[in-house]
Amino acid sequence: MVSSEKVGQRIATLRRTKGLSQEQLAELLHVSAQAVSKWETGKSLPETATLPLLSAALSHSIDSILLPQELVVLSAIYTDGRQELDVTHFVNQFVTSNRLSLIAGDQIFPQSLEGDRLKLLLVTYETPAGIYSTYVLKDQLLVIDVHSTGYVSGGNELQILEANYGNEQANRSVLQKMKHYEHFRWNSFTASHELFPSLIDNEDNDYLLLVYMNTEGIHAVSCAEGEQIHYSPDRASLCQSDPADRQCIVEGISRLGFGRGMDCSWAGAMTLSLAARGIETTYERVMGYSGACWRAAFEPVWDYSSADALVVYDYSVPACTAYGIHAIQADRLEPQQRAAEKLAILEDIRAGRLPIAINLRVAPEWGVITGYLEDGLTLLCRSYFDDETFEALEADSEFQMYMEVSKGYLHVDHWPYKIIRLGEQTTLPSALDNLYASLRIKLNSMHMETEGSSCYAAGYKALEVWSEGLLDHQWYAAAEDEAYSRRLSVNHFCMMALTDARRSAAAYLQESLPLVQDPRELTALSEMAGVYAEMAALLEDFYKNLADPAVVRKTGASPRLSWTARQREKQAELLTLVASLERRGDTLAATVLGLTEA
C-alpha cells in the first residue's frame, strides 16, 4: 500500500540529494512549488502523468519512489575525479531484499570512463538508521545492507577519506602524507613527485586522487602531475585547476531574479557575494546595514533606473564598512584600463572573492561574477535576467552541454560600467554600531538634495515628484499608447523597489530590537519597527493589485483601462501617507540616536 507520508519523505530526501530546491524541482516537472511541498509533507501524491518526469529528475524508478524500501541508494556516481557518470538508477536495480552487492567497474555499467585515471564508485544510501556514504575503487566488491553504516555528512570542514597517487594500473595510498600536509593549512597543492613520490616501476602518467566528505556528501577530485588541487575559500570543498588557471568557477551560487524577495539587484548581488565567501548574512541585513532599505529616488522623466539602489546615494560604502570589507570600485573604465581590471577580477575569483557589477547581461541591473573560462576570455555570472534564457533554451541540447562546462552559469555579455571588488575582511563594527549608522543614513538620505548634474529626486522630494507625475492628468490624456505603457511599466518597477525596501526595513528593525538596552531607545526602536511594518503592509497590498505590465502586454489589454486615473490618485494618496509615516520614522530614529530633533 502506498503511504503518502513515506513517499513524501523519499521525494524530499532524493530532491536534496540531487541538490535541488523545491522551486527547481517544480520547474523541471512543470508544476508549482506548492505541489512539491504538499507531496513532501504527505498531503498529496504526485499525479500519474507527473511520475515519469519525477523519476527522470530524481534518477530513481517510479517503484523506488512510490514503494520505498528500507535500503535505497540515493546517489551513485562512477567517477575518476574529473569525469563522472550518474549510475543511481542502474545501481538501485542491484538492491534485492534490502541488500546491495556488486563489483564496481566498466564492465557492469552501461557506460565507461575513458583514460587511465584511477576510477571509483561513490554511493550515498539510506537505511532506517539514517543516511550514509561509502565508496569502492574500481573492481572492488561493494556490499551494503540495512545494518551497514558508512560515513556521515557533517562538520564545517571537509574530511579526506582516501588519497592515491599513480594511475589505474599502478598506484599507492598517500593518505598519511595528505594528513600531514593538512597541518600546514595550504590553500592549494601541486601533484608532484616531491610531495607524492611515484612508484619506481611506473612509466605512465601519474594522478592524485582524493576522496572526501563534506556537509553535502561524498566527493572525488583528481589532477594530473603538475596540476593543482585547491580548497574553496571556506575549506568546505576541493577542486582541480591547472597551473595556467585556464578556468576557475565558484560553484553553488544561487539564482537571482525579481520576485524572489531580493528586488534590489545591488543588495541581491551583494548578498550572494558575501555568502560565497562564508560570511553569514541575509538580504534584509544587507539592506539594513547599507541603508538601502531607506532609499527613495525618482527620475522626473520616469526612468527605470530610479529603482537602482546606488543612483543617488552610494549604499555600497556603508555596507562594506559594516562587513569590515575593503572595497575597490571601478567606474566606467576606458578600454585601455580594462585589461588590468580583468586580471584583478580573475585574482579575486581564484581567492573566492566574487565581484559584483552592473550591466553584465541584457540590461543595467547588478549581478555577481562567478567564474571564468579560457584564461578569462569568458566571464561567468549570475544576473537578474537568467531565468528568461534558461526557460528559452531548456530543450536545447547544445546549451545544456555548455551548462555542464560553465557549472550552470551564463556568460557575461557586456563589459560592466561599474564594478565593485570586495577585498579582504578586516575588523567588523558591532551590530549595534551598524544599526546606529543605518539610522543616520535614514535621516540624511530622506532629506538630501541631489547636486550637480543629477536628474534624480531623492527622499521626500522623490515621493513628491512621483506623486505629481501620477496626478498630471493632462499628460495621460495626451500621451500616445507607447509612452503610456512605458510609464505604467516604470511605475510598477519603482513600486516593486519601494515595497521591497520598506519590507526589508521592517525586518531589519525587528531583528535589531535585542541589540538595544536603553529603555528609551528600545521603546522608540520598537515603535519604529511597527511604523515600517505598517508601511510595508500598505505598500505590499497596493503593489500586488497593480496591473502587471507583462500581463498587459501578453494579453493585449488596454494600458489605459489597466491603469486608470482613480488608481493613480490612490497611489498618490498612498505616497503621501508613506511620507507621513517616514517623518514619524525620522523622529523615532533621532530618539534612538540620542538626538534632540530629527
Question: Can you give a write-up of this model?
Answer:
By secondary structure, the protein is α+β, with helices and mostly antiparallel strands. Helices cover 41% and strands 19% of the residues. It contains 21 helices and 23 strands. The strands form six sheets. Strands 15, 17, 18, 19, 20, 21 and 22 form a seven-stranded antiparallel β-sheet that branches. Strand 11 and strand 12 form a beta hairpin. The protein is globular and about 85 Å long. The termini are far apart.
Global morphology: globular
**Unreliable stretches:** none
Radius of gyration: 28 Å
The count of helical stretches stands at 21
Biggest β-sheet, characterized?
A: 7 strands, antiparallel
- The chain-level mean pLDDT equals 89
Beta-strand residue percentage: 15-25%
Number of strands: 23
Distance between the termini: 68 Å
Helix content: 40-55%
| Helix and strand composition category | alpha+beta
Sum up the structure in keywords.
598 residues, alpha+beta, seven-stranded antiparallel sheet, 23 strands, globular
Provide a quick synopsis of the model.
The protein is an alpha+beta fold.
Topology:
Elements: H1 4-17, H2 22-29, H3 33-40, H4 51-58, H5 62-66, E1 72-79, E2 84-86, H6 88-92, E3 95-96, E4 99-103, E5 120-127, E6 130-137, E7 141-145, E8 159-166, E9 171-173, H7 175-182, E10 188-190, E11 207-214, E12 217-224, E13 228-231, E14 238-241, E15 248-249, H8 265-276, H9 283-290, E16 297-298, H10 316-322, E17 325-331, H11 335-350, E18 356-358, E19 366-373, E20 378-382, H12 386-392, H13 397-406, E21 410-411, E22 418-425, H14 431-447, E23 457-458, H15 459-470, H16 473-478, H17 481-512, H18 519-544, H19 549-555, H20 559-562, H21 565-592
